[in-house]
Amino acid sequence: EAGVAQSPRYKIIEKRQSVAFWCNPISGHATLYWYQQILGQGPKLLIQFQNNGVVDDSQLPKDRFSAERLKGVDSTLKIQPAKLEDSAVYLCASSLSTRPQFFGPGTRLTVL
Amino acid sequence: AQSVTQLGSHVSVSEGALVLLRCNYSSSVPPYLFWYVQYPNQGLQLLLKYTTGATLVKGINGFEAEFKKSETSFHLTKPSAHMSDAAEYFCAVSARAGTALIFGKGTTLSVSS
């Protein structure tokens, strides 16, 4: 069974630029999560989707972050414009209803 | 609201020694508890989980954890450390199945020969 796929794996941008990350969850997983992991900290939820609807985006900085889940499968997370403090690893996870979450390898973002 | 505290940001053991990683949680409802491991430049891999039932939970790679409600703890143990166990370990809690995880800050495990 293929795992959660994410791309790119690494991205370096200048502050105020835009960036987008892509996630392809495990086939059949209705629930998709985006987490932000800042160096030295545990992952923190940004947004949770159930199919293509948003379940929880209370911690998403909506002035600069946006996310969508196309047709309830793939998802993209965008930052516009990026700030220095956005440097982090962005993790995508998916799960089958009440089952544990499976995580992708993450995208490491460096904002200069 | 839920929260997790991992005691000790860095733990060092010798190969063959007991591994003990500490996790305390706070939850207003019966918690779901998890331990994940993260190897360098990789995503998180589930080691074990507690939902309901038996309080001693066995996971992969010889790890186990015990849910102690009275102590609000979910410590991770392994009787004998291997070099391959060196990684970052995260304890996490959720209010119910299918909801987002709240993670601790992580504990880096180093194993020396």
How would you describe this structure to a colleague?
The complex is a heterodimer of chains A (112) and B (113). With 112 residues, chain A is mostly beta strands. Chain A is built from no helices and eleven strands. Chain A is globular. The mean pLDDT of chain A is 94. Chain B is an all-beta fold. Chain B is built from no helices and eleven strands. In chain B, strands 2, 4, 5, 9, 10 and 11 form a six-stranded mixed β-sheet that branches. A five-stranded antiparallel β-sheet of chain B has the order 1-3-8-7-6, with no helix packed on it. Chain B is globular. The termini of chain B are far apart. The mean pLDDT of chain B is 93.
What can be said about this structure in brief?
The complex is a heterodimer of chains A (112) and B (113). Chain A has 112 residues and is mainly β. Chain A is 0% helix and 50% strand.
Element layout with pairings:
The complex is a heterodimer of chains A (112) and B (113).
Chain A (H helix, E strand, L loop, with lengths): L4 E3 L2 E4 L5 E6 L6 E7 L6 E7 L2 E4 L8 E5 L5 E5 L8 E8 L6 E2 L3 E5 L1
Parallel strand pairs in A: 2-11
Antiparallel strand pairs in A: 1-3, 3-8, 4-5, 4-9, 5-6, 7-8, 9-10, 9-11
Chain B lengths: L2 E5 L2 E5 L4 E8 L5 E7 L5 E7 L5 E3 L5 E5 L4 E6 L8 E8 L7 E2 L3 E6 L1
What structural class do helix, strand and pairing data of chain B support?
mainly beta
- Which segments of chain A are poorly predicted (pLDDT under 50) over 5 or more consecutive residues? none
Count of extended strands of chain B: 11
Beta content of chain A comes to over 45%
Shape, per Cα inertia axes of chain A: globular
Termini of chain B, distance in Å? 41 Å
What is the overall silhouette of chain B? globular
| Estimated radius of gyration of chain B | 13 Å
Q: Count of helical segments of chain B?
A: 0
Oligomer: heterodimer
Largest sheet of chain A: 7 strands, mixed
Task: Give the beta-strand count of chain A.
Answer: 11
Distance between the termini of chain A: 37 Å
Largest interface: A-B, 25 and 22 residues
Measured on Cα atoms, how large is the radius of gyration of chain A? Answer: 13 Å
Low-confidence stretches of chain B: none
From N to C, what is the helix and strand string of chain A? EEEEEEEEEEE
Strand content of chain B: over 45%
From N to C, what is the helix and strand string of chain B? EEEEEEEEEEE
